[in-house]
Design a protein that fits this description.
Elements lengths: L1 E6 L4 H5 L6 H4 L15 H25 L2 E8 L3 H17 L8 E2 L17 H12 L13 H16 L6 E9 L1 H11 L18 E4 L3 H8 L1
Helix pairs in contact: 3-4, 6-7
C-alpha cells in the first residue's frame, strides 16, 4: 500500500488570504467572494489538473515497471476545496489510467486543522505563523482556541492505520489522501517519527502538490507486527 499526500489546489480562501478552517464554513456552498463557498479558484483547478496528470504518470510508470496489479483509492476531507480537488483528480485518472477508479470517499478525519479564534480572519500568513510559533514550543497547546498538533496527529495517522487494515493480497493500492496544508504537514511529520513540534521543519506542500510518504523504518517495523 502506497500513500500519496495531495494538498488541495489554490482556493478562494487562499485568494483572500483568509483562514477557513471550520466544518461550518469550509463545507458551505454559499458565501465567499463568488457566493459559492470557499472552493477552488480557477488557478487552483488548473493546478490540480496538471498535478493529477503527473501523479497518474507516476502510477502508470510504477505499474509498468513492476508489472503488479494496481488499484487506486481517493480519500478526501469534506471541505469544498478538498472535495473539488478530489473530484478533479478522479476525472483526470479516469481518462489517464486504464483501470476502474472508485469515486472519492469523504473522510472526516482528513479535515482542516481548526484555527480557533482566527477562523475567517485575515491575513492568514501572519495568523498561521503565530500558531506555528507556539507549535514549536508545545505540540499539545491550544492557544487561540486552535486544535493541537497532537490531536491532528492522532486523527490523521488513524486514517492511515485504518487503510492499512484493508490490504489485499496480490494488489498494490495507491491511497490518495486529499487534505490541507497543516493536516498533511503534521501527518508526514508523525510518519517520519518526529515529534509534532517539528512539523514546520519539513518541506512544505504547496497547493495542488503531491508527495509519496511511508512510515520511517522503526514505525514500519511496528506496523508489520
Amino acid at each position: 500500500m502506497k500513500f500519496i499526500l495531495f494538498r488541495h489546489g489554490h482556493s478562494l480562501a487562499n485568494q483572500e488570504s483568509r483562514i477557513v478552517s471550520s466544518l461550518e464554513h469550509g463545507t458551505k456552498k454559499n458565501g465567499g467572494p463568488l457566493g459559492t463557498g470557499f472552493g477552488l479558484s480557477d488557478k487552483g483547478k488548473q493546478e490540480v489538473h496538471l498535478s493529477a496528470t503527473s501523479l497518474a504518470d507516476h502510477i502508470k510508470s510504477y505499474s509498468t515497471s513492476t508489472k503488479k496489479q494496481t488499484q487506486v483509492s481517493i480519500l478526501a476531507s469534506p471541505f469544498k476545496r478538498t472535495l473539488e480537488t478530489a473530484n478533479l483528480i478522479h476525472d483526470t485518472f479516469q481518462t489517464s489510467l486504464d483501470m476502474h477508479i472508485p469515486s472519492p470517499v469523504q473522510v472526516l478525519d482528513l479535515r482542516e486543522r481548526f484555527f480557533g479564534e482566527f477562523e475567517m480572519q485575515t491575513p492568514s500568513d501572519d495568523l498561521y505563523t503565530a500558531v506555528w510559533n507556539q507549535d514549536a514550543i508545545d505540540p499539545f497547546h491550544q492557544k487561540f482556541g486552535v486544535e493541537s498538533v497532537a490531536t491532528v496527529t492522532q486523527r490523521t495517522t488513524g486514517v492511515v492505520r485504518s487503510e492499512e487494515q484493508k490490504v489485499e493480497e496480490g494488489a498494490e493500492t495507491f491511497v490518495i489522501l486529499v487534505s490541507h496544508g497543516d493536516a498533511l504537514q503534521i501527518l508526514q511529520t508523525a510518519m517520519r517519527g518526529w515529534s509534532g513540534d517539528r512539523h514546520r521543519q519539513l518541506e512544505h506542500l504547496n497547493t495542488a502538490s503531491w508527495r509519496e510518504v511511508k512510515w520511517c523504518p522503526e514505525l514500519a517495523e511496528v506496523h508489520r507486527r
